[in-house]
Structures are given as structure tokens and as C-alpha cells.
Amino acid sequence: MNAARRAVGDDGRRQEVIRTVAKRGYRLVAEVRTGAFYKGVEIPADDAARVAALRTYRIMDTAPEAAYDDITAMAARISGCGFSYISFCDETRFWLKSKVGYPEGFTERTRELSMCPATLLQSDLLIVEDMRKHPNYRDLPSVKNPPHTRFYCAMPLINPEGHALGTLCVWDPGKKSLDHDQQQSIRLLARQVLALLEMRRRINDLEARHEEMVRLVARMSSLMEP
């Protein structure tokens, strides 16, 4: 982790830039980018460009894929958490590409009710050790209702252009903390998600070029017909 991080206590007091230390009950986060708001939730200032970038991957509402499911399974195992997911956020919702611990039919949550909007504003791990005590999270449905989220850790999925497309998240209703190696493992798994996304985007680009070439050949053929 970088030498400087922002530590925010569970009482939600103003952030101060400090040197990173292991401190129980605190979340260690990176610099927060000032954003606009959507239904009272802070969002990135460049949210329209971020959503446009997300669409280039054509990942939303796609079928489950083993490569992503392997990552969420590994994240849950490494962290010891009962729940994990890979989410992508468009204008209004966080959609789950892969998940562990959720019912099969649960695939999304509206942006204002999700745990993850704050993660999109970070450049590194966001850790909240007790969401029940934090004013920004304690009224969320997943915290107030069973199974009552307590521990939360998420890594923003930031593409090469600097847009946070979604999150890799682990959480648990029990008391948890992650050591340095576990935190680093979550970062590495997030990097693998991004590698899969970039591969997907390259395939999309190649398919689009192929389709354009087919159209061009067909047009040339029609012009050459007597």
C-alpha cells in the first residue's frame, strides 16, 4: 500500500491524510475524488464518460462465465468471507457478473441502495470493519436486514483509461479483518478481472472490424456486378 492513505473512523468524522497504520475499526482508503450526486449518493465527476467506457466492454447482463466465477470463489476463500461478487455499475444499478453466497435470482441492486458507490470513488481497497456503526452504511437494506452486513472490503475495477467500471467485493455478517497478504490477494484478483475485461474488449473490437470488412466486401461486390 502507498505510504499515505485516508482513515475514516466508524463515526464518519472528517478525513485526515495520515500514514497508513493497522488500526482496528478503521477503513483504509485511497484519495477520494470529488463527484456529483445521484439520488443522494456521491458519484464520480466523470460518470457519463465512465458509463460510456463500461459499454465498450458489452459486459452488462451477460451470462455467467467460469473465469469470473473462479475469481469470486477465490476471493471468498482467501478472505474467509461468506459473500463475494464482481459488480459493474451503469447509470442506475450495480449488476453482479459473478457472486458467492447470494440466491441464484439475485443479480442487481439499485445504485442508491448498493454498498459499492463509495468504492467507485477510490483508487485502492475500501475496508469498513463495522458497517452497522458507520453513518454512510448503517441504513442500507443489506446492513439493516438479514444477513446484516458487518465487514466490507472492495477493490474498484479501474480500466486503463482510469474509469472505475465496478468492484470486486467481499463481505460478511461476522467480525472480520484482512491482513496485508489477504488485502494484496484481493488486489491481484481484481487485476485478473480487469485482464478478462480487456480481453473481452479486444475481442469486441476484432468482431466489429470483421463485420465492417464483411460489409465493405459485400458493397464492393455489388458495385462490380454488371
How would you portray this structure in words?
The protein is an alpha+beta fold and about 230 residues long. It has one domain (about 25-225): GAF domain (Beta-Lactamase, 2-Layer Sandwich). The protein is about 30% helix and about 25% strand. The protein is built from four helices and eleven strands. Helix 2 (about 65-80) runs antiparallel to helix 4 (about 180-225). About 35% of the residues are buried. Mean pLDDT is about 85; it is low at about 1-35.
Q: What series of H and E elements makes up the topology?
A: EEEEEHHEEEEHEEH
* Biggest sheet features: 6 strands, antiparallel
Q: Give the strand tally.
A: 11
- Give the CATH topology: Beta-Lactamase
Taking pLDDT < 50 over at least 5 consecutive residues as the criterion, the unreliable ranges are: 1-34
The global form is elongated
Structural Rg: 20 Å
- The order of strands across the largest sheet is 8-7-6-11-10-9
In percent, how helical is the residue content? 25-40%
Structural class: alpha+beta
Number of helices: 4
Mean pLDDT: 84
**CATH class category:** Alpha Beta
Kindly give the count of domains: 1
Distance between the termini: 68 Å
Strand fraction equals 25-35%
CATH superfamily: GAF domain
The assigned CATH architecture is 2-Layer Sandwich
